[in-house]
Write a structure and sequence with these properties.
Elements (H helix, E strand, L loop, with lengths): L3 E6 L3 H16 L3 E6 L3 H4 L5 H4 L7 H8 L5 E5 L11 E6 L7 E5 L3 H4 E3 L8 E3 L5 E3 L3 H10 L4 E3 L5 H10 L4 E5 H6 L7 E3 L12 E6 L3 H7 L5 H16 L8 E8 L2 E9 L6 E9 L6 H25 L1
Parallel strand pairs: 1-2, 1-3, 8-9, 8-10
Antiparallel strand pairs: 3-12, 4-12, 5-10, 5-11, 6-7, 13-14, 14-15
Helix pairs in contact: 10-11
Length: about 325
């Protein structure tokens, strides 16, 4: 029987923070572990937009290989980066409690020149006054949603780990850039000059951390089981089922959010054309006991509303 679980992680600050969290939680269960640092292709290529790399799981495939080669026993991922179809022989061992699922805008310049706050009874949403802003992000999902709301803005590409992206924002002439709140908040880097984009639906499983292991490794799987948060696991499964049923990936602007509210699962999802001009949305509210196929059913309803045309257009553009 193994004595120490080897935790595979990328070497970025955020990835190490997440892996260390798992290490600490395993320690609380009386299980020894150690971190093993592995650089992914997604970390090496900091220029090409994510949606042009053409590989699902760009941040997970190197760790997958290390798992299958038995260099490590478990891997820790930002769950939104994990393909809905995991590599053969690798399974989900646990999903940790979700942090913030929201996207935030880190902006530059005087706040009064950028934002016009709405009444507090409107959930503190904001409206950007300037119709010619330049906003940076590498996410095709964020680009599409932003252009749908602000079609006159210019979107620029922004790659790198969170530290690199924050530095690029400060050195650029952009008006701001979009980040996942959880990533910045976990490592204490969320700037004061940031605001939550309450209107923007997140990527499926955004804000959640997934632990994976080899399918036959019962020791590691059982060790991670106490770390699993049932509510987060259920909601992220629904979101990922939605994504998988729409055949989405990094190059598809698909968003989804499932939330547990008083025994019900409230689901919101959408798909947009890459240019943001087309948008099809769905909202469902069901009992949690009846939510097993919610993600798949929501996708089917969205396809019936015309989402298949958007999916096909994106496929043909990438062919």
């Amino acid at each position: 029987m193994k004595n120490v679980i080897r935790i595979g992680t990328r070497d970025s600050q955020l990835a190490v923070w997440q892996a260390t969290l798992v290490k600490d939680q395993l320690h609380q269960q009386g299980i020894a572990s150690e971190l093993v640092y592995i650089k992914s292709e997604g970390d090496i290529d900091l220029v090409t937009p994510l949606y042009e790399l053409g590989v699902q799981g760009i941040f997970t495939q190197t760790l997958d290989a290390a798992l299958l080669n038995k260099r490590i026993d478990i891997a820790v991922h930002s769950m939104k980066d994990v393909p809905t179809q995991m590599a053969k022989g690798i399974v989900q061992a646990a999903v940790l409690p979700r942090a913030s699922y929201k996207d935030i805008l880190v902006y530059k310049g005087d706040e009064k020149e950028l934002f016009e706050a709405l009444e507090s009874n409107d959930n503190s949403k904001f409206k950007i006054q300037n119709s010619k802003l330049v906003i940076a992000t590498s996410s095709i999902r964020r680009k599409a949603q932003w252009l749908n709301r602000y079609p006159n803005h210019t979107l620029e590409n922004l790659r790198g780990n969170v530290n690199t992206r924050l530095r690029k924002v400060s050195e650029s002439n952009w008006n701001g850039a979009i980040f996942a709140a959880a990533g910045l908040e976990r490592i204490g880097l969320r700037p004061e000059n940031s605001i939550e984009l309450d209107w923007m639906l997140p990527a499926p499983a955004q804000g959640a951390i997934m632990i994976v292991c080899r399918e036959e490794d019962s020791f590691s799987k059982e060790a991670c089981t106490p770390l699993n948060d049932d509510a987060t696991a259920l909601c992220t499964k629904i979101e990922r089922d939605f994504l998988r049923a729409l055949l989405g990936g990094c190059a598809t602007p698909i968003s989804a959010l499932a939330q547990w509210k008083e025994g019900n699962i409230v689901f919101s999802g959408n798909i947009l054309s890459v240019d943001g001009k087309e948008k099809i949305s769905i909202e469902l509210d069901v009992l949690s006991s009846q939510s097993d196929e919610l993600g798949t059913k929501a996708a089917e309803q969205l396809l019936n509303k015309g989402a298949d045309k958007i999916v096909n257009a994106i496929r043909n553009a990438g062919a």
